[in-house]
Amino acid sequence: MNAYNSLLTLFLLVGCAFTGAFLFPPPKHWPYTEPTDPFDTEENK
């Protein structure tokens, strides 16, 4: 059961990390590249 518990903990940590990343996006000054939208350009704004 030890391997199962460690695997379950790993999945919980990854799930929390993904949830936190989606709910709280990193600030702009972080080295984080957002997915580019071809229709959302500076010329169209």
Features:
45 residues; 1 helix; mainly alpha
Structure notes:
The chain is mainly alpha-helical and 45 residues long. It has one domain. The radius of gyration is 17 Å and the shape is elongated. The mean pLDDT is 72.
Beta strand count: 0
Kindly report the average pLDDT value.
Answer: 72
Beta content comes to under 5%
Main sheet characteristics: none
Q: Tell me the structural class.
A: mainly alpha
Write the SSE topology.
Blueprint: H1 2-23
Summarize the structure.
The protein has one helix at 2-23. Helices cover 49% and strands 0% of the residues. Residues 26-45 are annotated as: Disordered.
